Amino acid sequence: MQPSLDLRLSSMIKALSQIVLPSVDTEDKAAIEQLNIVIGSLLLLKEQIDYVHWFEHVETNSMLELVQSIAGHIGQEADAFMNAANTAADIAKKPDATLSSRHDGNIRLREVLAQLIHKSLSLEDKALAANLRRQILKYSEAQISRERAFVARVNLDVFGDNLLPIREALVA
Amino acid sequence: MSELSALRRNPTDAWLNELRARYPTERSVDVALTRRMRKRSQEISYSSPSLEEVGARLKKFIAQETNGAAIIRNLRRLTGGASKEQFVFDLEWDKGKNERTNEKMVLRCEPAASIVETSRRGEFELMQFGARWMPVPPVYWMDEDGSTLGAPSLIAGFVEGVQKPAKIQSNVTGMGIHFPSDYRQSLAPEYIDLMVRLHKAPIADDALPSFARPSVGTTEASELIVNWWARIWAEDLYEEVPIAILTESWLRANLPVLDHLSVVHGDLRTGNFLFDETKRQITAVLDWELGYLGDRHGDLGWILTDLYITREAGSPFYCGLFPSENELIEGYEAAGGLPLNKQTLYWHKVFCTWKQLVLSLGCALRAAEDRSHQDVLLTWVSACGYTISEALRRLLENA
Questions:
Q1: Which positions in chain B touch A117 (Cβ < 8 Å)?
Q2: Are B152 and B219 part of one and the same domain?
Q3: Whether complex ipTM tops 0.90
């Protein structure tokens, strides 16, 4: 389908940078600041757009894996948590799901995961709770790496040592 | 949309009261947060008032406060900062008996939703208190409920100065300001000295009446600030963040005991003070709205967060000024500061980093939902929530 998303974004960036920005009153600092942010945001979108569905897909699978790993240790409610997680994941994984419904499914899945994490942190078996905490930290390392890669272009990241390109972060 | 997401968008009284009971905070914080949640379900598409509208409201307000004898000139907008809308103007007025003066003033207003929702009265009291110990813009008036000025507002004197060295680039809202060594030599010791003075300042029984006074020898001070930001997170988050859950749990399990009650500025970073470029002296400490009574380690913890690290030839500097945590601690104690406890400092570094996560992935995004004068700026800076998440992960791994 034409024009491609990439061409549309490129043309918007060009128009704003080369035509609009030079004509803004240089005294209007707020307008200049926001216009530069709009241009930067379009550049960011251009970089992200090819990967957004993949991102949500990896999120769903990694959260399900963690839910499965933790639920097995919390006793009677494990089935209820797994059912809730699978219901949320089904929303995200529907073959004809739009991006926003995938994202909504993942938000619901995060809610289930959050309840499970709270449960695991309050286990009476402190050694088990500590072990689960380590698993959650390990999961967080990969999750955060994906998120940082996705917004790296904003240039606010302070840890250069482990910042990955988007594709590498998604396959890691 | 999940039920919780719907409640965050349109909070019911029942849900709000549940949160208030779960996270008891000091009264002024509860009032500010409850007010903003009640506004949230209103359909608002915020756009900045025109200068004409601001001018008309300002004229009416100043007339009320100065018995009508003042003249306003040169009203214009001030840029910078992600929280409040600011305007600058010249005011000719009768400051005291037989003292008619021309003074440059700043009007600070809340948009429909701000990245931080705080009490103007609290800010006013803190600025008056702070002015006894360091250069702070003089505060003159406030419209606490916004009934005249259109939004809760505060008017203070304008102070000359710059946020950053002339040749240095910085990020939005003054983040990422790095000071070359010739600037650090003058500004770093003065910055420390101001903090020391503030933290040691005696707090009279009738001072700062809007603020709770947590008891020394208890964990009350730490609990109050954890509850404050945990409530904001519960009200604002868009998606649950596992590292945030682990962090809150760790903070509550390791609450430090307060050894001395201090006024804490709460946002004492570069970008929030002005200095004279020629003399290299601080001319004003700004943005007191996140201040509270509590543990002085909170101000140092804020400076030590990874988000404010800058680099020079590859070497890191905290807040663009301090090459190491030890240099900050030693400088603080050598300047006569109260002794610092490394464990307590670590706790506050974790707390401050978590607070930054709440601000970026919660507050900034909520305010950006067509409720501020700079939605696009807020969505942009919210991205720092992910490097903050990484900072938290590293801190918890090492805790």
A1: 242, 245-246
A2: no
A3: yes
